[in-house]
Design brief:
Layout (H helix, E strand, L loop, with lengths): L1 H23 L8 H29 L3 H6 L10 H4 L5 H22 L5 H29 L3 H17 L10 H7 L6 H18 L5 E2 L6 E5 L5 E3 L23 H16 L6
Antiparallel strand pairs: 1-2, 2-3
Helix pairs in contact: 1-2, 2-6, 5-6, 5-7, 5-9
Length: 277
Amino acid sequence: MTESLVAIVTALGDDELILGHRHAEWTGFAPHIEEDVAFSSIAQDEIGHAAAYYSIASSLTGLTRDALALGRSVDEYRHAVLCERPNSDWAYTITRQWLYDRADCLRLTALEESAHDDLRHLATKIRREERYHLIHADMWMERIAHGPIEGRTKLTQAATTVLSATAGLFEPFEREADAIGEGWLTVPSEELGRRFVGEAVDALDGLGLPAEVTPDGWRAEFVASSSGDLIATDRSGSGEASAPAGLGGRSGRHSPDFSALWADMTRTYRADPEATW
């Protein structure tokens, strides 16, 4: 059932491509010149990973990598909605990178057990490279979390927003049941999501940002006391689970943010799909 394999690698490629484009928007605007170079390099890595995933899909479909990356309509992309959201401020961007890379590490570790040789080997290669992305994000999270209260406040606001939206990264892929049956995937997305929530909450606690999450695991609340310490709180008062934000991407339902990004990202390809460079 190659259709299920194509669905998996296309969605993974879409995550990397769209997030890579968002990262690239910081080129020339990062906090300092060294970070400008570093974040541009991370963006390039993500787009390179997308190309590698698309290469597997290309070998199964006959479509070129460019056609897969740039030749589809908006509703044919299968990335998580989190990846398409505008960068906002630096705290949001870094928190998204930090949580995305932690989620991706879990996915890649599971994919290293895939029954598909090319996907298994690619997962090992990408995980080695993503390790450095996470080191970069860890450094920034530590710096902001232990810095002035203004930065810590922005970080907690970002963590509240991004943690909920990471649910979309673990929304089941199309044809996931078939992919599990064939051995392309070895762990269901929902199980990886449960593991991720536990790890993310522990990591936030390690930064001095204790989080209290709702029973579904995807929403966290923080509040700053008068002393500047961060205390977990459940503002709903009910303790009841609420629907995670950012779902729908795996079935092609995207926000208006993506329409604008897609138009910009695909403009040159759409002008002449047959052009070579």
